[in-house]
């Protein structure tokens, strides 16, 4: 794929995983300063990585949740908890991923991640 095709494919996956509302907000907030970054993440993260056939979206969501939790990227973690639900993970599976994080990344990382996920799931309940 060339860059244009990668961007188009990435935008499709980005919308499917994160939802139109999230992507529409990101696009609407794009300006001259952030345009290159938005293009980069759409092509690279969504167009190159999330479109690969080697892992299904559920598995990619599990990996993403674990890494974001381990690195304390709370805002991204909340966004990807929502995405994980959209990708078919259950709340129980999200919990299992975070329990796994507690062993391999530490209890403090999992503690923060559980708080973020708990609040995100409450918001999803409306």
UniProtKB/TrEMBL annotation:
List, in alphabetical order, the Gene Ontology terms for molecular function in this entry.
Answer: 4-carboxymuconolactone decarboxylase activity
Q: Which InterPro entries match?
A: 4CMD/NDH-1_regulator, AhpD-like, CMD-like, Decarb_PcaC
Q: What is its EC number?
A: 4.1.1.44
Residues spanning the signal sequence: none
The regions listed as transmembrane in this protein's record are none
Q: Which domain of life is it from?
A: Bacteria
Record domain Carboxymuconolactone decarboxylase-like: where: 36-119
Top-level EC class as recorded in UniProt: lyase
Keywords (alphabetical) are: Lyase
Q: Does the keyword field hold Lyase?
A: yes
In its UniProt entry, what is this protein called? 4-carboxymuconolactone decarboxylase
Q: What is the lineage of its organism?
A: Bacteria, Bacillati, Actinomycetota, Actinomycetes, Micromonosporales
